[in-house]
Amino acid sequence: MNVEWMRGILDEYVRLSNLINMAEEMQVPEEAHEQHDELQRLVYAVNAIFAKLNEPPISAGLGDHDRSDPAWYWVRNGQHAQGVLTHLDAVAEMNRTESPTLNAKSLHPWVWDAAAAFWTAGHFAAGVETGAKALTAFVQTKSGSRLADREMAADLFSQKAKAGATRLWLPGDRDQDTWKSRQDGLHNLAMGAYAGIRNVAAHSVETGWTEQEALEYLAVLSTVARWAEETEVVVCSE
Predict the structure, then answer these.
(1) ∠ at Cα 51 (49, 52), nearest 5°?
(2) Whether the predicted pLDDT of 93 surpasses 80
(3) Where are the domains of the chain?
(4) What is the mean pLDDT of the chain?
(5) Are 170 and 234 in contact, with CB atoms under 8 Å apart?
(6) What is the pTM of this model?
(7) Read out DSSP for the chain?
(8) pLDDT digits (tens, 9 = 90+) for 148-197
(9) Which of 202, 193, 187, 184 is CA-nearest to residue 220?
(10) Please, is 195 exposed, middle or buried when counting C-beta atoms within 10 Å of its C-beta (0-12, 13-18, 19+)?
(11) Which terminus of the chain is more exposed, N or C, with fewer CB under 10 A?
């Protein structure tokens, strides 16, 4: 919705309506006729604006321009529309459903502490990449693995036991479906985060990520970090 365009149309509509009203009151029909011609060129756009401002959830109650109405009514209707347009954003904000916000400082410190400096500087993709690198470093330190990123996640978080292999497994009964679902979730989420987030940030010259998008990606890495921190180091015997 182009508010500036709408405001310009309404300003001209009110101006012409005022001139017509004054010309009629002063009984100067020639001037009123000339202004009527100008006004008619705006009618289609004006009615479109009125229809837009009448849309739910809150109707402005604006009537279409009707040539049979007195000019003073056009002035009043146009001024009403101007007022609605002025307060449109404020009313929309007031009626917006309250939603929670994500506090970056509450993300897992493995990820956020590494990304924070880049975020302050406005380098969001670099912050995401650095957060992913920090996650890798913490997992490597915990497990002793020399693998990195997606390969590391594929190996360490796998449910499959392999003699002599190190695994990072979540606590719980490994024979239960709940444990298998959680471990499978960690395994797949971690691989996806490295493949779809870390690798994109590392290998793209310009990701085009907005701050909101980058924050959401950082939240994915934070989730992986929380689950990874909860895991236990297990050396498989078979």
Answers:
(1) 65
(2) no
(3) 3-95, 104-235
(4) 91
(5) no
(6) 0.62
(7) --HHHHHHHHHHHHHHHHHHHHHHHTT-HHHHHHHHHHHHTTHHHHHHHHHHHT-TTS---PPPP-TTS-HHHHHHHHHHHHHHHHTHHHHHHHHSPP-----GGGS-HHHHHHHHHHHHTT-HHHHHHHHHHHHHHHHHHHH-----HHHHHHHHT-S---TT-EEEE-SS-TTSHHHHHHHHHHHHHHHHHIIIIIHHHHH-S-----HHHHHHHHHHHHHHHHHHHH-EEEE---
(8) 999 999 999 999 999 999 999 999 999 999 999 999 999 999 999 999 99
(9) 193
(10) middle
(11) C
**Token couple for 59:** 């109707």
Structure tokens of 35?
A: 């202004």
- Rounded Cα gap, residues 220 and 192, in angstroms: 10
Instruction: Count other Cβ atoms within 10 Å, centred on residue 119.
Output: 20
Backbone φ and ψ of 117, nearest 5°: -65, -40
Of 221, 216, 235, residue with least CA distance to 153: 221
Q: How far is CA 28 from the centre of its chain?
A: 55
Token match 């975020």: residue? 119
Q: Which residue is listed with tokens 């209707």?
A: 77
- Overall average pLDDT of the 84-90 stretch: 82
